[in-house]
Amino acid sequence: MKQFNIVLAGVGGQGTLLAAEIIGTAAVRDGLNVRVSEIHGMAQRGGAVTSNVRMGDDVLSSMIIDGGADVLLGFEPLETIRGLKCASQKTLVIMSSEHIPPSELAARNVPYPSDEEIRANIRLFTDKVIVLKAAALAKEAGNNLAQNSVLLGALAAVEGFPVKMESLLEALRELVPQRHVDVNVRAFILGTKTAKQQLNHV
Predict the structure, then answer these.
(1) What is the CATH number of the domain that holds 93?
(2) Partner of 199 at 20 to 30 A CA spacing, among 67, 123, 154, 160?
């Protein structure tokens, strides 16, 4: 299998690392060679968190080189911009629209960039971008905290993504606390449906 590289970029408390673990677990279920990175940045709530997931027969390391991502899964817009060093014209950016301003912006009295500025930054690297209202979709599913499952569902809709949707859902059911499984499955399905609608226009 050829390589497929995913960068997940978010902040602590969004379930970024759980999402990476779900992808890795599902890939193993499908018999794929997979490497999941260690945490980069600060894992505490509100701190920047990035994880790399690499799949492919010849993958030996979890590190993704600059420009090497097939998908940049952005859990927060500013963190998505931080992850763009791994993007190129081949990269599909899937981004949640919800802003979580980092504390250093307030400390330096710097305004959060507008949505137009964020889109312009992304398009310096790639024109392939879809934006999901992940918070609203998670709320529709039953819990605002299920945004990571919305984004996983969106990832499952990507053409060429080598992990089976059923395997992702099995891993989600295994790794998410039992009382939250149904909500997260609904969020996943909403993410897949919404992403498919947008991907038709990318």
Answers:
(1) 3.40.920.10
(2) 67
